[in-house]
Hints:
The chain is an all-alpha fold.
Amino acid sequence: MLPKSGTLLPVRRAKFSERDYASQIRQALRDELGGSRVAAKAIMRWTGASNRSARNWLNGAASPSGYHLLCLARESDAVLGAILSLSGRPELALSVDIRAVEIALARASGAIAVLRRQQARRRID
């Protein structure tokens, strides 16, 4: 028999529980979609999950895993932010916020351009 001579590695424990995870995802989904039947249908459309699963995620009774979690993160900035926060990388959530601001600015810029064209037409008439 050989003696144990290897280095012991420290055990890293998650800083959150399964319940915390389900709660964070629930809150993110409710913040973005609300808690209605329409919200469950949107989740079903995004993920292909069943109505029961979608309702359980909205109620915090269960949490999505793997493929469904990635589908939710693809469609929901709130879920992506929750994932980044739970994974200990909240600074990366800032990039999600920056992207949202860029989109809002592009929409506002387009609206301003439309209003300017309308104003120019009124001057001509």
